[in-house]
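Appendix C reproduces, verbatim, an entry submitted by the partner laboratory led by Prof. M.T., so that reviewers can inspect both the input and the predicted structure.
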Amino acid sequence: MMDTASRSIGKELLRASGLVRRFGGLVAVNEVSLNVTHREIVGLIGPNGAGKTSLFNILSGQLGPDSGNVSFAGQDITGASASVCARAGIGRTFQIVKPLVSLTVHENVTVGALLNYPLATAREKAEEIIGRVGMRSLLDQQAGSLTLESRKRLELARALSIEPRMLLLDEILAGLNASEINESIHLIRSFAHQDGLAVIMIEHNLHAVMSLADKVIVLDYGRKIAEGKPEVVVRDPAVVAAYLGSDD
């Protein structure tokens, strides 16, 4: 595992305080606070139904919080729309990938680049991003014909197309084989370490989390139950109990 202490992590980019989101009687996100810095990779883990995707939806503008606040790059974005969050520099992927299946790979990524550029420049930027994620040979292939692994790469390229400062990756490694996971780990690490992006990743693959994350946040029943370095968090009794159950 890389010694994350040996590289520089930048100043704070995201700060969320006391976030709460209810769905009827269910409290999906319960007083969650976190902060993320430039170039930092954060693993967000927890059992199914712990509130991880709901938290992503708040941070990216798909949902507004019932209480609490979010600031990004010094700007209050609490309750801002998804388009405002994207323009601020928050890019995200979705657990269930939904490319524009009738469009080519190039056209899918161009759509996102149009957020910041006119068409001709957006097409050039899209081609650069597609090459960066290793899909140049699939540039003109229709998205609906892609394999799962290529759809995941396309989802990542689409998130990058808005030129984000932070990536929210929702189970980007799910369904991939060992070789594909290793390639994706290398890509994600390069975006943080070389490009300076902050990354928060929801992930059930603990090997990937241990390989990538500078710190890990654990949710259970909507609450944050642990936060810290991966090798410490995975030994936390509360975390072990959340995943494996308690004998008490």
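The radius of gyration is 18 Å. Additional entries are available on request from the coordinating office.
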